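Hallway conversation turned thread

IA: we were arguing at lunch whether anyone had actually written out Glutathione-dependent formaldehyde dehydrogenase end to end. Turns out nobody had. So, for the record, here is the sequence (384 residues) and right after it the structure tokens. Reply here if something looks off.
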Amino acid sequence: MLAMDYRGPKRVRVTQKPMPEIKHPEDAIIRVTRSCICGSDLHLYNGNVPDTRVGTTFGHEFVGIVEEIGSEVTKLKVGDHVLVPFNIACGRCHFCKQGLFGNCHESNPMATAVGGIFGYSHTAGGFNGGQAEYVRVPYANVSPTVIPEGMHIEDAVMLTDVVPTGYQAAEMGGIQPGDTVVVFGAGPVGIMAAKCSWLFGAGRVIIIDHVEYRLEFARNYAQCEAYNFREMEDPVVFIKKTTDWMGADVVIDAVGAEAAGNTMQTITGRKTLLQAGSATALHWAINSVKKGGIVSIVGVYGPTDNLVPIGNVLNKGLTIRANQASVKRLLPRLIEHVQNGIINPKALITHRIPLEEVADGYRLFSAKLDNCIKPVLIPPSARM
């Protein structure tokens, strides 16, 4: 089968790989019909995530048709068109029973923090992902969900990560009616977090980035204020000034490890990897939220240490909430929002790229060319 193949930092290609096989009675084999390149895939692509091994297939956002099931799979049948959450969850462990499907204790033998994630290095279990024609899906009775009748598959593929991650970012912010919410990062997740903040009752939503076309997209899609931090002397001072010097009620970090805007953070977090990514957005979030406010983190950082102003967290009495989205927990509500027209996920998709051209897709998305917001890969069989 054709599959994306990681060859080292900034080097990916499509190659022929062996077909995945059923390895456990609860496995399913899925024929992929759409897969996305996620902003967090760029952390892998750029070599910022430890233990990203040559030969890995990325891709944790995908939908497809069930081709084969293990002997103990009862929830799915061959021919079902399913969306597959990026979390790999057993559904039985202590954490899954609490709805913390992103923290499954059984699916990732490599770590005790995050559960398994498709195509996201051996720190997340070493599973191959869905930027391929076929993919093996473990615990197929737990998370894969049949796409509701009438739902477009490109809405469905966005429900595997982007929509739930943006929604959970807003949810973790504990937004109260009338709150001012600031989102750092106008990528797909940041834009979705801004959009979803309104659903929780925000009175004002501001998004901060430095890429003009994305700021313009955010203004139109999420009906929010959008500002370029390169046009400010200091984004923290800007936010305090525009909130009567109180600070925002809730600040969401939707950037993570590859934040721009601070030379020292860029050198230590992106160039020399002395810390687990540039924590610029996290600094701005902590310093611009009001005393007693909430910082919600969905931007991805590496598992090693980061330089953050923890003293300010203490002295301001902040609450920091962070996690990988628990997709399975959120899906019923989000499917309803899509079906009712409250959220239009596929509107974020700007580029549809043949799987065979995956290298061009990564280059385009990474360099933010051609006004790219969200690229989707289409395997040959799904184009017939």
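OS: looked through it. The CA atoms of residues 87 and 117 lie 5 Å apart.
IA: good, adding that to the notes. The longest helix spans residues 327-339.
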